[in-house]
Amino acid sequence: MAAKLIGLPLALFCTVLAAPGAWAENCQLSVSQSRIDYGAIRRDAFVERASMVLGTRSLHVNVLCTEPAPMALRFIGVAADGQGFMFGRQGRFRLSLKHTQVDGRAIDWAATHLPGEPVSGQLLPGQTLVARAAGLPVVGLRLTARVDIDTELPADALEVRSETRLEGQGSFELVSSAAPPNQ
């Protein structure tokens, strides 16, 4: 994600990549777009507030396997806090998996460090989400999900003297059940 401050312009971009996963021979992960551009933002366009929420942007993640495989995802990026990833020096972005299906069947998510407990589908720093249905891990050939990206900046991030570019980056990774969640 990136942005430019205008008043000075602020260019906001989020770069999202697909990392080669642990199952490269069996499964391929792809994202519908590798870059989200928030465009130029003028600080004078915003009312005085402690923070500024940029509009939600979405992309799609797809996993296609040649043989049935367990489906688990994580996002690798610089943690802003336990709830999101760094966007520029002070902001953060959050990722939420929505409308997720494996082989056309709706699924839920569980975090590997909280087995059995369903989670909202939010990808948190250091967390791996495992696809589940009826409380059990799901094995399948195809996973599809919409990823909603919500970005927030503190108001003082817009106080710049010249055009400034803000970015957040990271990559999605398909995780083998043998890989530890902190890798």
Give structural notes.
This protein is mainly beta and 183 residues long. It has a single domain, classed as Immunoglobulin-like, CATH 2.60.40. The chain contains no helices and 17 strands. Strands 1, 2, 4, 6, 11, 12, 14, 15 and 17 form a nine-stranded mixed beta sheet that branches. Strands 3, 5, 7, 8, 9, 10, 13 and 16 form an eight-stranded antiparallel beta sheet that branches.
SSE map:
Layout (H helix, E strand, L loop, with lengths): L1 E5 L2 E10 L8 E5 L3 E8 L8 E20 L1 E6 L1 E3 L2 E4 L3 E12 L2 E2 L1 E4 L6 E2 L2 E2 L4 E6 L2 E2 L1 E16 L9 E11 L9
Organism: Pseudomonas antarctica
Keywords: Signal
Protein name: DUF1120 domain-containing protein
Protein traits:
single chain, 17 strands, elongated, nine-stranded mixed beta sheet, mainly beta, disordered C terminus, Immunoglobulin-like, eight-stranded antiparallel beta sheet, 183 residues
Helical/strand content category: mainly beta
Examine the secondary-structure arrangement and name the CATH architecture. Sandwich
Order of helices and strands: EEEEEEEEEEEEEEEEE
Under CATH, the topology is which? Immunoglobulin-like
Tell me the helix content. under 10%
| Shape call | elongated
Radius of gyration, Cα only, in angstroms? 18 Å
Q: Tally of extended strands?
A: 17
The parts where pLDDT drops under 50 for at least 5 residues are 1-14, 19-24, 178-183
User: What CATH first level would be assigned?
Assistant: Mainly Beta
| Average pLDDT level | 77
First CA to last CA: what distance? Answer: 23 Å
Organism: Pseudomonas antarctica
Keywords: Signal
Protein name: DUF1120 domain-containing protein
